[in-house]
Each structure stands twice: as structure tokens, then as C-alpha cells.
Design brief:
Blueprint (H helix, E strand, L loop, with lengths): L7 E6 L3 H12 L4 E7 L2 H11 L3 E4 L8 H11 L4 E6 L4 H9 L4 E4 L4 H12 L4 E2 L4 H9 L12 H11 L4 H8 L3 H15 L4 H10 L9
Parallel strand pairs: 1-2, 1-3, 3-4, 4-5, 5-6
Helix pairs in contact: 2-3, 7-9, 7-10, 8-9
């Protein structure tokens, strides 16, 4: 007699209705999964999460009201047993770094083939991690970096903008003119950036900003 294994309970959080339905249909056709919830916002999902008793949540990052990272942070605080697979068009290193800090189980680019998203879902559901083929090098670079994953989050928005200018090779005077601030203020920002990140030289700041792509020079 064959004993049927319980199906993995999957919840989808995606603000694009068409993609939400396509994912639900693709996952629902697989015998090992059961789609137990579909939500177009993180707020709606969090309010229902306790009653869903789901196993895996497949979540977008760029959603109105509450972005996916905020949703993951709240979910981890309320119920760390959930496995989390990010499926997003946002593959910027800063977002990936933040997702890794929060302990997501997988991250796949939204443009990946449906079959790869399903492969990722199977891996995450079984307790493994999965990062999309287009993202694996970026994830390795972040994990192997000498800089802490949370270093960029220690900076204010203005400090990240100043860091972007430093990465672009701009002087304090040039950055000050672009931002409408005094050169003295920019030098203070530089000192705070070094203090918060533990980095001492401009060369280290430039490597931190550009090699890890945690801020982009064109943010300035």
C-alpha cells in the first residue's frame, strides 16, 4: 500500500494579478503542492498568515504599501518556521544582501522560466536553499565579501548618496555642489560613513560601493 505524502502548503504574494494567477495555476497542477493562499499585498498576507498554516511563501519584493523585505522581516519575527522564496525583478545587490540577512531560503529572478521557479520551490520546500542561475555569482560575491552584509544598512540615505559620489571618484567639493550642501558637511558625512562601516580609506569605500554594487554611482 502506497502512503501519499502530505502536500506542501504554498502561499503566493504578488501584486501583479496575472502573474499571481499564472503561478497559482502552474503550482496547482503539481501533486506535491497545494496553493492555500493568494495575496496581492504583504499587509493582507501578514494578517492571514497565522490562520493559513502554510509551509512556503513565494513572495515578490516590489509591492505597494509594504515591500517584500518589510513583509519578510515581520513574518520572521512572528513565525520563523515559514520557508521563504523571493521571486522578484529586483536583483540589485543591496536588496539581495538584505534578503540574505533576513534568512530567505531562495531568490529567483522574476524573468526566470517557470520551470526554474518550480525547481526553486521544490528545493526550498525540501529544506534546501536555491538561488537562480542568473543570481548565483552575485550571491557568492556577497557571501564571500570581507564587508558585513548589513554594512550598507548602517548608513542613512544621504550617506549612501555621498558614498555613491565617492565611488564615482568625485571630490567632496563636487559632491557638495551636486547636493547643495557645504564641503564641510560632506566631509562630516565621509567621517560618519567610515565610522559606521569600519572602513578607513577611500579605496576601501570605493571597493565597498562599486564591487559589491550596494550603491550605484548614478544614484548621485
Amino acid at each position: 500500500m502506497t502512503t501519499q505524502l502530505p502536500r506542501v502548503r504554498v502561499v503566493l504574494v504578488e501584486d501583479h494579478q496575472l502573474l499571481l494567477e499564472l503561478l497559482a495555476d502552474s503550482i496547482g497542477q503539481l501533486a506535491e503542492f497545494e496553493v492555500v493562499g493568494r495575496f496581492t499585498s504583504g499587509v493582507a498576507f501578514l494578517s492571514a498568515a497565522k490562520s493559513l498554516k502554510g509551509d512556503v511563501v513565494l513572495m515578490d519584493l516590489m509591492m505597494p504599501g509594504m515591500n517584500g523585505l518589510e513583509c519578510v522581516r515581520s513574518l520572521r519575527r512572528e513565525d520563523p518556521s515559514w520557508k521563504i522564496l523571493i521571486v522578484s525583478g529586483n536583483t540589485h545587490a543591496l536588496s539581495v544582501s538584505r534578503a540574505l540577512q533576513l534568512g530567505v531560503n531562495g531568490y529567483v529572478e522574476k524573468s526566470a522560466p517557470t520551470e526554474e521557479i518550480l525547481t526553486a520551490l521544490r528545493a526550498v520546500a525540501s529544506g534546501k536553499t536555491y538561488f537562480g542561475r542568473s543570481m548565483q555569482a552575485k550571491v557568492r560575491k556577497l557571501r564571500d565579501s570581507p564587508f558585513p552584509l548589513d554594512a550598507a544598512d548602517r548608513l542613512s540615505s544621504r550617506e549612501r548618496t555621498v558614498l555613491a559620489g565617492i565611488a564615482a571618484g568625485q571630490t567632496s567639493k563636487t559632491i557638495a555642489a551636486a547636493l547643495g550642501l557645504s564641503e564641510f558637511t560632506i566631509k562630516n558625512h565621509r567621517r560618519r560613513i567610515k565610522s559606521k562601516t569600519g572602513l578607513q580609506t577611500n579605496a576601501e569605500l570605493i571597493r565597498f560601493a562599486t564591487n559589491l554594487q550596494l550603491v550605484e554611482p548614478d544614484d548621485l
